[in-house]
Write a structure and sequence with these properties.
The complex is a heterodimer. Helices cover 74% and strands 3% of the residues of chain A. In chain A, a hairpin with a 5-residue loop joins strand 2 and strand 3. The chains are: A mainly alpha, B mainly alpha. At the A-B interface, strand 1, helix 1, helix 3, helix 4 and helix 5 of A face helix 1, helix 4, strand 1, helix 5 and helix 6 of B.
Amino acid sequence: MRTENQKAWFFVLPVLALVAFNALVPMMTVVNYSVQETFGNNQFFWEGLGWFEQILRSDRFQAALGRQFLFTALILMIEVPLGIIVALSMPRKGFWVPVCLVLMALPMLIPWNVVGSMWNIFTLPKIGLLGYFLNDVLGINYDMTQQPLSAWITIVVMDVWHWTSLVVLLCYAGLVSIPDAYYQAAKIDGASPWSVFRYIQLPKMKTVLTIAVLLRFMDSFNIYTEPFVLTGGGPGNSTTLLSIDLVKIALGQFDLGPAAAMSLIYFAITLLVSWVFYTLMTKDDAQ
Amino acid sequence: MKKRSLIPILYIAFLMLPIYWLVAMSFKTTNEILSGFSLFPQTFTLENYIAIFTDPTWYWGYINSITYVTLNTILSVCVALPAAYAFSRYRFLGDKQLFFWLLTNRMAPAAVFALPFFQLYSSIGLFDTYLAVALAHTLFNVPLAVWILEGFMRGIPKELDETAYVDGYSFPRFFVTIFLPNIKAGVGVAAFFCFMFSWVEMLLAKTLTAVEAKPIAAVMTRTASSAGYELGLLAAAGTLTIIPGAIVIWFVRNYIARGFAMGRV
């Protein structure tokens, strides 16, 4: 068991200093902007909570938030079951295990803008493999730059391509930690594959699955670079997710007040949902 | 058994297709790309790669990226080690709250921090340096490194520490000569994750640099927009960014599954 020792704070101090510098100073800057109005020349006026009200009421923010939740829900619904299925069907031992793991992890190590460019090249009509195959072989009219539905399918498939392996690797880690004796016992009892999954494999994967869902939620909710490079938020505003909209307001229009207010609302939502996952996770740890 | 292995094979094939296409494109001439569809490069060319290796703005992009990523990895792991030790061994006032607060930084959207970071690092004179990007990336890498290392350290029994103290080891000597070798795998995995997230992030890296420390990602966006439609060149640059990741991942292949589970299985 861990012992009580207040001197442990000294060990934490370097991390605290570094992260505080990186997190608190920018966060205070954001808070500062969010309650003020500026007309340039570094002159600021007190605005109170006006920006927050304006953002929360604006159709633009609500639409971006809706798209964001839709995107996150879609990718979680696809990536989690798919990840579990792939992990379950992977070999447990032998030469192919490291090969599989390395190949699966590869998409996660590609810089995010390259992921966007890669999918752009892959899906271009006439030039890209997928674009050519869909348009010229199957005869489906597919053009990401014109049709919102095509753009949506593309960014969802891109994210599935990019991050399902995270779920696979996490689940796989949970699965290999199950001792063989469990399976032998199940065999003797004549358990069906479903009950092996339900009563042996799933409970063992519970912790790692929570980590997977938590990480996938946080990262997909904050996603910016890949869809920005691929679609630029278009066609129209159809794939403008929260981060893309935020960067448009902050760095494009330089509306610091509304951007800061939106940042804080955005962060609060991420925090709230993540906190729910985190409490569930640590509750499991304590048991 | 045969039927079951079909799923991973199909899945890996799906993962490899876009990568194959990127690599295939990088060996094609611009003419071939624009003239029509071809599954394999018809006129195999290395001119895209030659263009990258002879142009300083291109290859410096890679050097810059690798420099700040390495700097960030060393920095993150070094500060995370003692902190993870404290979290895994001791209870102290506010430990749970602190741990969660650290994790919240992993949740912050990079887009929120882009502008304030620019102002912060400009005001302390670090704008456009490797250190600025390396420090900025500690925001999400340090919490992650603490999290992973804490998971691995928890697996080491406390008796190891106590025996060492009885044998007359001082804390630093115990930590370096006994404890660290025991959590080698954890350090490797933490370093791998820091490398990975610093290597793939580009919004902050791009915002915090202009000329001197410009990452490869920024060089690529410039090419994509200004030099017209040089898809072959873009594909070659993209292919080259996959290589460092592939090398690093090969080193940790045996720990990767456990590493992704943050040592929590």
